[in-house]
Amino acid sequence: MATTLTKAEDRTAVGHAARIAHVSKSFGGPEGQQLVLDDITLDVAPGEFVTLLGASGCGKSTLLNLVAGLDRPTAGSIETPGGRPALMFQEHALFPWLTAGKNIELALRLRGVPKSERRTEAERLLELVRLGGAYGKRVHELSGGMRQRVAMARALAQDSQLLLMDEPFAALDAITRDVLHDELTRIWRETNVSVLFVTHNVREAVRLAERVVLLSSRPGRIAREWTVDIEQPRRIEDNAVAELSVEITEQLRGEIRRHGQH
Amino acid sequence: MASTDTKPDDLAGLEAGLDALDAVQVRRTPVREVLLRKVLPPALAVALVITVWQLLVEAQVTDDYKLPSPAAVWNSASDMWLQGTLLEVVWTSISRGLLGFLMAVAIGTPLGLLVARVKFVRAAIGPILSGLQSLPSVAWVAPAVIWLGLNDKMMYAVILLGAVPSVANGLVSGVDQVPPLFLRAGRTLGASGLRGTWHIVLPAALPGYLAGLKQGWAFSWRSLMAAEIIASSPDLGLGLGQLLENGRNNADMPGIFLAIILILFVGIAIDLLVFSPLERWVLRSRGLLVKN
């Protein structure tokens, strides 16, 4: 399909949206240090969509926090040449004292966008997530799916080249999640942003990503990665998605089983 | 096409449908319902109290210099009104109370922010600040009179000592209750340090801060009344507290009742007219006011 090819060709420009090199992270506790991430090396190319997949305790959220700059690695380095990455959480994290539009405008303001341009830009971003009429809506007046779309618009307002997503759809119902998958794919292709998406849902990972990276647990290490050669737009029910999901799930279960053996 | 995927237009339509199904309906209560549910019950309660009062007077449960009739209190009020002193007395106290309260806000707010955000300051004066809340401000009247003399300064000192801890503590608990997620979201958007405090911490702490302001006003008013009752002097101008004290000196029970009712009335009125609407507006705009 033509669009898929264009996407791949965009990447001819050398560089990376994120370069994670030999990153380790341990947290100090009363019983000594606990290693959470062990020697993670991962590049995200400009415009690439990568999902980080793993069971509980694989440190995937920790890794995302490190890339977002909310925490520092114990060892190794992280580069994000496109500036401070945008981050979306499982909870929408929209500020309830602001309207949907003003939430986006706050992000624009903190980015340094002049006041005169903020309103127009906020409305453009709301249009992008198909919430054109929601500018003046309060957060509590929006449904769960709408809140996550506003959160997506706010993240995009940072104009970062890298969008980090920490299980952003985990709390949504299946129908809404499905629609948001389509929406995210569309927006990713329209904006050419790079996405690093964390999930424990194998099918979601395969549905969305160009590359799926499987992390082992305790400590988190890169166990294996897959390139997903299925044309977009995909459906979560597609046979190709299901087949790859089965293969990845097998591997994931293998990783989990190792923890029961000692 | 590898799959029977949704066409872009279908997706937009599907999404519009979902939004319409899921969107939360916000309903405003009609005025009649507000009157019926919020105004009628307290009005009935007041009417009941006055009726019982009148019945007690008519049954002559005690001497009439101890329990004046509602009519006597009313006459005492209308006498003052005709002399033109009623509003003056009320205004003397309200203006003192509000000015003192505003000063308490101006001092308590930065103090609260400092305690909330600086660990050392919190460890140093946090416990003292919450302890001060349980100290009745009457206790400050004696030293304030000795230090500052019988004047307005002393009144304001007593108000501040009563209200500043409430305002500061309200802000501290407001800041403590800010969800960590908001702070993380703020930091990823680039709001840290002072910008984070201004754009994220303060607005997020607003409900707790307002509760502190409300309590701060109650403490201001109480402190002022204590100061006015204890420290009366002709130089001070007649406030509600002095009105009460004059009533005692003249054995004028209707005057005492009138003063008490006015003190209560002002306290309730400021709360109902200023703080409650403010608090409700903040909570409603955040979807925190749940109606059943």
Automatic annotation (TrEMBL), chain A:
Q: Name one GO molecular function term.
A: ATP hydrolysis activity
The question of whether Transport is a record keyword is answered with yes
Q: Which SMART domains match?
A: AAA (SM00382)
The alphabetical list of record keywords is:
ATP-binding, Nucleotide-binding, Transport
- Which Pfam families has this protein been placed in? ABC_tran
Q: Does the keyword Secreted apply?
A: no
> What is the species listed in this Swiss-Prot or TrEMBL entry?
Streptomyces atratus
What CDD domains does the entry give? ABC_NrtD_SsuB_transporters (cd03293)
Domain of life the protein comes from: Bacteria
Q: Which InterPro entries match?
A: AAA+_ATPase, ABC_transporter-like_ATP-bd, ABC_transporter-like_CS, ABC_transporter_ATP-bind, P-loop_NTPase
Q: Which residues form the ABC transporter domain?
A: 18-244
Q: What is this protein called?
A: Sulfate ABC transporter ATP-binding protein
TrEMBL record, chain B:
Q: Write down the membrane topology.
A: Multi-pass membrane protein
InterPro entries listed in its UniProt record: MetI-like, MetI-like_sf
Q: Which residues form the ABC transmembrane type-1 domain?
A: 90-274
A cellular component term (GO) from this record?
Answer: plasma membrane
Look up the coiled coil feature and give its residue ranges: none
Q: Where are the transmembrane segments?
A: 35-56, 97-116, 128-148, 154-175, 196-213, 256-276
Transport as a keyword of this entry, yes or no, is: yes
What Pfam families does the record point to? BPD_transp_1
What highest taxon heads this organism's lineage? Answer: Bacteria
Q: Does the keyword Transport apply?
A: yes
Q: Where in the cell is it found?
A: Cell membrane
Q: Which family does it belong to?
A: Belongs to the binding-protein-dependent transport system permease family.
Q: Which PANTHER family match?
A: ALKANE SULFONATE ABC TRANSPORTER-RELATED, MEMBRANE SUBUNIT, TRANSPORT SYSTEM INTEGRAL MEMBRANE PROTEIN
Q: What is this protein called?
A: Sulfate ABC transporter permease
Organism, scientific name: Streptomyces atratus
